[in-house]
From TrEMBL:
SUPFAM superfamilies per UniProt: C-terminal effector domain of the bipartite response regulators, CheY-like
UniProt key word rRNA-binding: no
TM ranges: none
One GO BP: regulation of DNA-templated transcription
Molecular function per GO: DNA binding
Alphabetical keyword list: DNA-binding, Phosphoprotein
Domain (HTH luxR-type) ranges: 147-212
Record PTM 4-aspartylphosphate, positions in chain: 61
Organism in which the protein naturally occurs: Alkalilimnicola ehrlichii
Domain Response regulatory positions: 10-126
One Pfam family cited in the UniProt record for this chain: Response_reg
Keyword DNA-binding: yes
Protein name listed in UniProt: DNA-binding response regulator
C-alpha cells in the first residue's frame, strides 16, 4: 500500500533543465509539505548526492548530458541495491520502459502525465511498489507480446552503447563515459550490429531514429 502524503520523504530530482526541476520540485513540495526535495542537473551530480545522502526515492530523467539516465540508474543500484528509482521521461516507447526496469527502476512515468500521477508514483515507489502509468503498461505489454522492436534483443549495456553510437559518440568517448575499456565497447558494437543485422553506422542511426531512441 502506498504511503500517505503526510509521511516525510527525502527525494532526489534529477533533470538537466533548471526550469523543469523547479516546476516539479514545487509540485512535489506542495503535494507533500513534509517532503524534502533535492536537485541534481546531471547523472554525475546525482551519484555524488546519492552517495552522501539518504534518499527515499530518486526521480530520474533518462535524457541527461554526459552520463545518461540509464547508466546513472545502474550505478545508483550498484551503490545501493535497495535504491528506489522512479524514471520520469519524455520517452514512452516500450523498449525504454523495458530497459529501465531491467536496470533496476521501480517505476516509470512520462513527463506528459498528469501532475497527480507523479505524486502517486513517488508514494508507490517509496512504499516499495512497482509503478507504471496505465498507458506505459499497455505499451510494454503490446511490445512484449508482438516482439515489434528489434532492440528488445539487446542487453542493457548493448542498448546504452547503441544509443550513444546513434548520438554520434566515438568508441573512445563511450569507453570513457561508461568507465569501460575501448575493446569492450568495440566488442559490444560488433555484437549490436550482428544482432540487429546492421552493416554500418548509417544503418544504426536510421534504426535508432525509427525506434525513437534519438531524434532525426
Amino acid at each position: 500500500m502506498s504511503f500517505p502524503v503526510s509521511v516525510g520523504l527525502r527525494l532526489l530530482l534529477v533533470d538537466d533543465h533548471a526550469v523543469v526541476r523547479t516546476g516539479f520540485r514545487r509540485l512535489l513540495e506542495q503535494a507533500g509539505p513534509s517532503w524534502q526535495v533535492c536537485e541534481a542537473e546531471s547523472g554525475e551530480q546525482a551519484y555524488v548526492l546519492f552517495a552522501a545522502g539518504d534518499f527515499d526515492v530518486v526521480v530520474l530523467d533518462l535524457s541527461l548530458p554526459g552520463m545518461s539516465g540509464l547508466e546513472t540508474l545502474r550505478r545508483l543500484r550498484r551503490r545501493a541495491g535497495n535504491a528506489r528509482v522512479l524514471v520520469f521521461s519524455m520517452h514512452d516507447q516500450g523498449v525504454f520502459v523495458e530497459q529501465a526496469l531491467a536496470a533496476g527502476a521501480q517505476g516509470y512515468i512520462t513527463k506528459s502525465s498528469a501532475p497527480q500521477v507523479l505524486v502517486d508514483a513517488v508514494l508507490a515507489v517509496a512504499a516499495g511498489e512497482r509503478y507504471l502509468h496505465e498507458g506505459l503498461a499497455l505499451a510494454l505489454e503490446q511490445d512484449t507480446a508482438g516482439g515489434e522492436s528489434a532492440l528488445r534483443n539487446l542487453s542493457a549495456r548493448e542498448f546504452e552503447i547503441f544509443r550513444l553510437l546513434a548520438e554520434g559518440r566515438c568508441t573512445h568517448g563511450i569507453a570513457a563515459l561508461l568507465n569501460i575499456s575501448y575493446k569492450t565497447v568495440a566488442n559490444h558494437a560488433c555484437s549490436i550490429k550482428d544482432k540487429l543485422g546492421l552493416s554500418n553506422a548509417a544503418d544504426l542511426t536510421r534504426l535508432a531514429i525509427r525506434e525513437g531512441v534519438v531524434d532525426a
